[in-house]
């Protein structure tokens, strides 16, 4: 627990640290990778290159500093970081590495302004934050391991089947090598993947795109230009190949109740929406499903949506937007006028996933249409960042 003097120093220096936090986090990652190269595999290089990861770390630290006096709100603010950590299998012994390198980065950026007393206060704050994260992550690990078909750490899965869903998206059906059952997950969640490519370990997380069935998991992955892992899946992953999976995680899950659900996706953002749609429909809730794709060739899961429509004709309303070419219900992008027409009256929970620009536009439009923040639900495929930041 922080002493009174440490609390006072944190409060006094928080504005200075906040002012330099971007510089601190930008320095932190290279420093950590240099001192501890074994942790580099845990971080997607694309998110380092575009500074998304440093911004996410800075945001999490600031949120905790601001909310630590309100434990419930602080825990809620850390939910995204906790889910990402669970999907990577982050262990308690990795936290001292982060603490050491973060304090070293603060020292390099602030220089002589970082007195021993201030350094001690911020070091104690980090220890407090790390302890909370370790506690909450441990709860996730143990809760999942206790489920039928659950596990802790990694579990080896074999590719049973692959299916081309569109020009850029392929689905991979994975079954456990040990032949045992597979724990259910909450629709909308993602799962961590660990695999070795040419002797190098890589971690990624992908949405679970099919409804839980107790036997397998399905990942539907977009082929990203220059993406080493997605390229491996698309070009080299064949039935019989194996990889390791970590526990499912993520908070883009259905809010209980009977209110209608609006699911809005762009591109590969459709992957968590499919199990969410089925869950809501099976609960007897109305679902307004809106998906935007470049054109028909880039539109995935058309047959799957048609099957849901046949099974729940009174509950499911589907709208497809194509930016180019023929087909779909509408041409162009999702604008406020169309969203206003599709948005049901009264209470509705809206979920949206897609490229950064798509999510920023949808969030702003929904806010303008009077949908309160507590009924706007979204999740980033990569590190979280504000939706008003341009893609």
Automatic annotation (TrEMBL):
GO MF terms held by the record: FAD binding; heme binding; metal ion binding; nitric oxide dioxygenase NAD(P)H activity; oxygen binding; oxygen carrier activity
Globin domain sequence ranges: 1-138
Keywords noted in UniProt: Detoxification, Heme, Iron, Metal-binding, NAD, NADP, Oxygen transport, Transport
Coiled-coil spans in chain: none
InterPro entries membership: Cbr1-like_FAD-bd_dom, FAD-bd_FR_type, FNR_nucleotide-bd, Globin, Globin-like_sf, Globin/Proto, OxRdtase_FAD/NAD-bd, Riboflavin_synthase-like_b-brl
Name of the encoding gene: hmp
Catalysed reactions, as listed in the record: 2 nitric oxide + NADH + 2 O2 = 2 nitrate + NAD(+) + H(+); 2 nitric oxide + NADPH + 2 O2 = 2 nitrate + NADP(+) + H(+)
Protein name (database record): nitric oxide dioxygenase
NCBIfam families: PRK13289.1
EC number(s) given by UniProt: 1.14.12.17
Residue span, FAD-binding FR-type domain: 152-255
Organism domain of life: Bacteria
UniProt GO BP: cellular response to nitrosative stress; nitric oxide catabolic process; response to toxic substance
Protein's organism: Bisbaumannia pacifica
Role of this protein: Is involved in NO detoxification in an aerobic process, termed nitric oxide dioxygenase (NOD) reaction that utilizes O(2) and NAD(P)H to convert NO to nitrate, which protects the bacterium from various noxious nitrogen compounds. Therefore, plays a central role in the inducible response to nitrosative stress.
Similarity comment: family membership: Belongs to the globin family.
Cross-referenced Pfam families: FAD_binding_6 (PF00970), Globin (PF00042), NAD_binding_1 (PF00175)
Co-factor(s): heme b
Top enzyme class: oxidoreductase
Lineage of origin: Bacteria, Pseudomonadati, Pseudomonadota, Gammaproteobacteria, Oceanospirillales
């Amino acid at each position: 627990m922080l002493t009174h003097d440490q609390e006072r120093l944190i409060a006094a220096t928080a504005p200075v640290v906040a002012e330099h936090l971007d510089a601190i986090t930008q320095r932190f990652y290279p420093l950590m990778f240099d001192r501890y190269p074994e942790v580099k595999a845990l971080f997607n290089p694309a998110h380092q290159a575009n500074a998304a990861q440093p911004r996410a770390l800075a945001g999490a630290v600031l949120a905790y500093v601001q909310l630590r006096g309100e434990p419930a709100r602080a825990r809620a603010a850390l939910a995204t970081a906790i889910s990402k950590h669970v999907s990577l299998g982050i262990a308690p012994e990795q936290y001292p590495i982060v603490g050491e390198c973060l304090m070293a980065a603060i020292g390099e950026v602030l220089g002589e302004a970082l007195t021993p007393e201030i350094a001690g206060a911020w070091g104690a704050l980090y220890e407090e934050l790390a302890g909370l994260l370790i506690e909450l992550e441990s709860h996730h690990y143990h809760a999942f391991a206790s489920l039928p078909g659950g596990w802790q750490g990694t579990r080896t899965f074999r590719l049973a089947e692959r299916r081309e869903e569109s020009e850029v998206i392929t689905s991979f059906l994975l079954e456990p090598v040990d032949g045992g059952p597979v724990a259910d997950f909450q629709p909308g969640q993602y799962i961590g993947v660990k695999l070795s490519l040419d002797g190098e370990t890589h971690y990624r997380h992908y949405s679970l795109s099919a409804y839980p069935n107790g036997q397998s998991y399905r990942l539907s992955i977009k082929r990203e230009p220059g993406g080493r892992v997605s390229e491996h899946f698309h070009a080299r992953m064949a039935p019989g190949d194996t990889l390791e999976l970590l526990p499912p995680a993520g908070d883009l899950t259905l809010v209980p109740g009977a209110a209608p659900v609006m699911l809005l996706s762009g591109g590969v953002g459709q992957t968590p929406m499919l199990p969410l749609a089925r869950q809501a429909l099976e609960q007897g809730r109305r679902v307004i499903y809106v998906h935007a794709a470049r054109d028909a060739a880039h539109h995935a899961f058309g047959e799957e949506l048609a099957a849901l429509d046949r099974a729940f004709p009174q509950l499911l309303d589907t709208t497809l937007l194509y930016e180019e070419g023929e087909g779909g219900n509408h041409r162009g992008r999702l604008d406020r006028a169309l969203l206003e027409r599709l948005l049901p009256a009264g209470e509705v929970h809206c979920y949206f996933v897609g490229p950064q620009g798509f999510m920023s536009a949808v969030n702003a439009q929904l806010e303008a249409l009077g949908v309160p923040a507590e009924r706007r639900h979204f999740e980033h495929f990569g590190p979280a960042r504000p939706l008003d930041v341009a893609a």
